[in-house]
Design goal:
Blueprint: E1 7-8, E2 14-15, E3 18-19, H1 27-38, E4 44-45, E5 48-55, E6 58-63, E7 67-69, E8 74-78, H2 83-99, E9 105-108, H3 110-117, H4 127-132, E10 133-138, H5 140-157, E11 163-169, H6 173-181, E12 187-199, E13 202-211, E14 221-229, H7 233-243, E15 249-257, E16 270-274, E17 280-281, E18 297-300, H8 302-305
Parallel strand pairs: 8-9, 11-12, 11-14, 14-15, 15-16
Antiparallel strand pairs: 1-5, 2-3, 4-7, 5-6, 7-8, 10-18, 12-13, 17-18
The structure holds inosinic acid.
The site of inosinic acid has 15 residues, from strand 14, helix 7 and strand 17.
């Protein structure tokens, strides 16, 4: 018998061509959806039904998985702890896998949410740090997609040249490695570590170099890689410093551009995302050295960074 076709689920009324806000059958589904939303993981509730048994042409049993996660091409069926239900579901899942071998489906207990969400940095947060986060602004998936586009553009622009990537530590660590992974032109790397001078507790607009470049840059094609451009003071200082060392060319690539806060104009050649005037952490960016390891970028609640 050839592989049967799943059919659109009819359990929920559609409105405007899309599923209306679903009425979740079980509170665990609502909780799961809320966690997925927080992490900006796209989901669809019960989009398809898979016929499992037939009498003649008539379908007598179907299975409708709770969720579909397009980014992972994964169907998810949540389950309660009730053993009787789990046994029935397991039987259906076994049949579904036999009939539809290409369909990727997982049965998740409540405790399994976390292991699935580990991929999205769920456990990197303690209750206190989670409490400080307002929302996830950019998921890792969105970041990766944009980086691939940017890397393709940079590779085209530097065709036939070797590019020296200069990263400004520490916030740029994730972005720089992910970006260079996708560059198809020859690349060498160097890093600078700078600190901002403060006056009476606030940023004075000048910076100090704590770690200089390891290699000379005269005659090199430099691409300065930044995590975020805010007022523009840091970047303006670094550009002046690098320009004085006579590179063959100098361009700037930044992951984030907080344009609304700009105080000095700086040329940005490649911008992954323009973001609103909010304090963001994750994907290398920190607040007091925390949150750098989150694979996504999130907005901190103002009370978490105001003294
Ligand atoms: P600028 O000199 O004001 O443009 O500041 C740029 C630097 O400030 C970045 O390299 C970061 O270290 C830091 N910064 C600015 N905004 C944020 C933010 O929202 N989160 C984390 N660090 C930030």
């Amino acid at each position: 018998m050839s592989t049967p076709e799943p059919v659109p689920s009819t359990r929920y009324p559609k409105r405007g061509g899309r599923h209306s806000h679903p009425r979740f059958v079980h509170p665990s589904e609502e909780e799961f959806a809320r966690i997925l939303d927080f992490y900006r993981i796209k989901w669809v509730y019960e989009p398809k039904s898979f016929p499992l048994r037939w009498e003649g042409d008539r379908v007598t049993e179907m299975f409708t998985p709770d969720f579909y996660l397009p980014a992972l091409d994964l169907y998810v069926e949540l389950t309660t702890m009730k053993q009787s239900l789990v046994t029935r579901k397991n039987r259906k899942l076994r049949e579904l896998r036999e009939l539809y071998p290409d369909v990727n489906i997982r049965l998740l207990y409540r405790k399994d949410y976390q292991s699935l969400l580990d991929k999205y940095g769920y456990r990197a947060l303690t209750p206190t740090t989670l409490e400080s986060i307002d929302h996830v602004l950019l998921s890792n998936e969105e970041i990766q997609r944009k980086i691939e586009d940017l890397a393709a553009q940079i590779s085209r622009d530097y065709e036939g040249k070797t590019v020296r990537l200069v990263g400004i530590l520490k916030g740029v660590a994730f972005f720089m490695t992910d970006l260079m992974r996708h560059l198809t032109v020859p690349v060498s790397t160097d890093y600078m570590f700078i600190t901002k001078y403060t006056r009476n507790g606030s940023y004075s607009g000048s910076v100090r170099i704590l770690k200089d470049l390891d290699q000379p840059i005269e005659g090199e094609h430099l691409l300065l890689v930044e995590d975020i451009v805010d007022t523009g003071f840091t970047l303006r200082y670094i550009l002046g410093y690098l320009q004085a060392r006579k590179p063959a060319s100098l361009r700037v690539c930044t992951l984030l551009d907080k344009r609304a806060r700009r105080l000095v104009e700086v040329p940005l050649d490649y911008v992954a995302f323009e973001i609103p005037d909010e304090f963001v952490v994750g994907y290398g960016l920190d607040h007091r050295e925390l949150y750098r390891n989150l694979p996504y970028i999130c907005v901190l609640k103002p009370e978490a960074y105001r003294e």
